[in-house]
Amino acid sequence: VQLQASGGGLVQAGGSLRLSCVAPGSTFRYDGMDWYRQAPGKQREWVASISDISNTKYSESVKGRFTISRDNAKNTMYLQMNSLKPEDTAVYYCHRLRGDTWGKGTLVTVSS
Fold it and tell me: What's the rounded mean pLDDT across residues 26-37?
């Protein structure tokens, strides 16, 4: 079952966005989840991870600016993105470790 990411858009540098990812199914609370992104002309890169018990990890490029979280009651994962930079422009994807499941991405564009 496909994940559904949303919340992307156009924002000025220094601004904020919050992405959401709804993950259907009854196992969400037990699933590790990730955010990835792919900028134009570049390979997909890992952004952040959250475990089933909400342990979090971040790539160095977003540490201190992005926050990953989850709401198990809503089967939803979030990515709060602050202090956005033009280099954060990319399609953002959510990923569930169980079944190596990917969602359709949501485009984030940061203007300078």
Answer: 94
Residue 84 zone, left/alpha/beta (φ > 0; ψ -120 to 50; rest): beta
The residues pairing with 9 across neighbouring beta strands, listed in sequence order, are: 108
- HSE-up (13 A, CA, CB side) for residue 100: 0
Tokens of residue 34, six digits: 């990730």
Predicted confidence (pLDDT) per residue in 92-107, tens digit: 999 999 889 998 999 9
Over residues 54-62, mean pLDDT: 97
> What is the pLDDT, as a whole number, of residue 1?
59
**Residue partners of 60: CB distance under 8 A and separation at least 6:** none
**C-alpha to C-alpha distance for 32 and 68, rounded to whole angstroms:** 12
Cβ neighbours for 16, distance < 8 A, ≥ 6 positions apart: 80, 81, 82, 83, 84
Q: How far apart are CA 51 and CA 37, in angstroms?
A: 19
